[in-house]
Design brief:
By secondary structure, the chain is of the alpha+beta class. The protein has 2 domains: 1-60, Ubiquitin-associated (UBA) domain (Helicase, Ruva Protein, domain 3, Orthogonal Bundle); 62-206, Elongation factor Ts, dimerisation domain (Tetrahydropterin Synthase, Chain A). It contains 8 helices and 3 strands; from the N terminus they run H-H-H-E-E-H-H-H-H-H-E. It has a 3-stranded antiparallel beta sheet with strand order 1-2-3. It is globular, with a radius of gyration of 19 Å. The model has no long low-confidence stretch (mean pLDDT 86).
Length: 207
């Protein structure tokens, strides 16, 4: 087992926002490799977020939150998002507010058509799948399904513009590597509350 010093643990904590013991365990598991430790923390954080979200699902989702807005410097494009959480205390949190701003900026910049995959009409999904029928002809069903899902992710769900917001890649990779959905889950794990992007509106002059 690698010898992990307190400074390395503290540096990782400051970078990721994870707890001290979580950072220490991640560094030990990664053999002192910081990038690998970050990936371990990210994976565990997403799993924790899924558990928190699952617990809150039975109650109909979070009821508190805020409505955030962003207006582009040109004054010609604006967005409004509703971000929900379980308590007003978290809604006032700086990280919650920053997430809300990031999401509103993304709506302005990337012109998504939906918050999540389940909001895409079934006929649109089926029409997209049909485009790849020839690409998977003769392949085993499991492999064919993976190929189609990969193409759907790239050409429909994560498409910019017109894709699903939570499936779009977060552009500031030096701050966070993953999708907007992954970013939201990381905040759920850190703030220990269910957080959901309920809806958004995008407005552009002349459209």
């Amino acid at each position: 087992m690698a010898n992990i010093d307190a400074k390395a643990v503290n540096d990782l904590r400051l970078e990721t926002g994870a707890g001290m013991m979580d950072c220490k365990r991640a560094l030990e598991e990664a053999g002192g490799d910081v990038p690998k430790a970050k990936e371990i923390l990210k994976k565990k954080g997403l799993e924790k977020a899924d558990n928190i979200a699952a617990k809150g699902a039975g109650a109909g989702g979070p009821k508190e939150g805020r409505i955030g807005t962003y207006i582009h410097s040109t004054g010609k494009v604006a967005a409004m998002v509703e971000l929900n959480c379980d308590t007003d205390f978290v809604a006032k949190n700086e990280e919650f507010q920053a997430l809300m701003k990031d999401l509103a900026v993304a709506v302005c910049a990337f012109e998504p058509c939906a918050v999540s995959k389940d909001q895409i009409p079934a006929d649109v999904v089926e029409a997209e799948k049909a485009k790849y029928a020839n690409d998977v002809k003769g392949k085993p069903p499991e492999i064919a399904a993976k190929i189609i899902e990969g193409k759907m992710e790239k050409n429909l769900y994560a498409k910019i513009p017109g894709g699903v917001l939570l499936n779009m890649p977060y552009p500031k990779e030096d701050e966070f590597k993953g999708t907007y959905g992954d970013l939201l889950k990381s905040k759920v794990a850190k703030l220990k509350e269910n957080i959901q992007l309920r809806r958004f509106v995008r407005m552009e002059v002349g459209k």
